[in-house]
Amino acid sequence: MDVQGVRAVYRRYARHYDRYFGKVFHQGRKLAIDQMGILPGQHVLEVGVGTGLSLPEYPQGVRVTGIDLSPEMIEGAQARVDALGLADVALHEMDASAMDFPDASFDHVVAMYVLSVAPEPERVIAEMRRVCKPGGRLYIVNHFRHANLLISGLERAMAPLSQLLGFRPDFALDEFIARNDLDVIEALPVNLFGYWTLLTAAREPADDVMASADVRPAGSH
Ligand SMILES: C[S@@+](CC[C@H](N)C(=O)[O-])C[C@H]1O[C@@H](n2cnc3c(N)ncnc32)[C@H](O)[C@@H]1O
Fold first, then answer.
1. Could you tell me the end-to-end alpha-carbon distance of the chain, in angstroms, rounded to an integer?
2. Residue 92, strand partner residues
3. 144 vs 111, which has greater pLDDT?
4. What number does the ligand 1 atom closest to the CA of 111 have?
5. Which of these, 124, 190, 204, 221, has the minimum number of CB atoms within 10 Å of its CB?
6. In this predicted model, what pLDDT tens digit does every residue of 85-103 receive, in sequence order?
7. Ligand 1 site: residues with CB under 6 angstroms?
8. 153: which residues sit within 8 A by CB, 6+ positions away?
9. Distance, CA 70 to ligand 1 centroid (Å)?
10. Taking the domains of the chain in order of start, what are their residue ranges?
11. Cα–Cα distance, 5 to 8 (Å, whole number)
12. Mind giving me the DSSP string for 138-195?
């Protein structure tokens, strides 16, 4: 799916997004924010912030910048910020694969349910690294291909429908980690049946150091 395709999908989804994807994905959002251990005054970047369902979960005194490709999703996020009077939240329409921010701008960088939607996930990861401060961490919540052969077969069969679904259902965790040279610190199953994964990775690539974490795709436990 290209940038225009993503915008078209989320133009359609924006109005009903919260009803369908609010509660069901919320545990992952909350856990990602809890895992960051954000300190007062720190600055978080949320890429693909969508309608801002995560925004009320950030602790007070934290600066949050949210970006998204879709103007309609950003409008939803801005409406939430205004309705809840959330201070210190800035929202921008921006492509996460080519961000306007200087290097090392943020203490924490997170992408929730974005990478299997983004047209160029590797460029998004490269940009997340670039704008994160050295020594910082990347947080990724995503669905990865299921370990169960029957389910993963179904996901592969659904892959040609990704344009319609708005995400790639057959995104493989191990390939994703290897392609992006991610030094994974932790991988936790989240949401319904642990079908999604919260990955915590070091900003710096693994290079040839083996990631020592217990990395299991959802469903393999
Ligand atoms: C499934 S929604 C997730 C929204 C939100 N993170 C949540 O937890 O509900 C995926 C979002 O990623 C955005 N997105 C996809 N590719 C992007 C990119 N390259 N740059 C910025 N946003 C992107 C889409 O526009 C959409 O709003």
1. 32
2. 67
3. 111
4. 6
5. 221
6. 999 999 999 999 999 999 9
7. 6, 10, 21, 25, 29, 47-50, 53-54, 67-70, 73, 95-97, 112-114, 117-118, 124
8. none
9. 8
10. 3-202
11. 5
12. EEEEEE---SSHHHHHHHHHHGGGHHHHSS-TT--HHHHHHHTT--EEEEEEESGGG-
Q: What is the pTM of this model?
A: 0.88
Give the CA count within 13 Å in the CB-facing half-sphere of 9. Answer: 18
Residue with tokens 């959002």: 29
**Domain 3-202: which CATH number of 3.50.50.60, 3.40.50.880, 3.40.50.150, 3.10.310.30:** 3.40.50.150
- Ligand 1 pocket test, pick from 117, 140, 141 with the greatest ligand atom count within 8 Å of Cβ, gives 117
Q: Cα of 7 to ligand 1 centre, how many Å?
A: 9
Residue ranges of alpha helices (H) inside 25-166 are 26-36, 71-84, 121-131, 149-158, 162-165
Q: For 116-134, what is each residue's pLDDT tens digit?
A: 899 999 999 999 999 999 9
Q: 130-153, pLDDT tens digit by residue?
A: 999 999 999 999 987 766 655 566
Identify whether the C-beta of residue 67 lies closer than 8 Å to the C-beta of residue 92: yes
Q: Write phi, then psi, for 109 (nearest 5 degrees).
A: -130, 130
How far, in Å, CA of 59 to CA of 72, rounded? Answer: 26
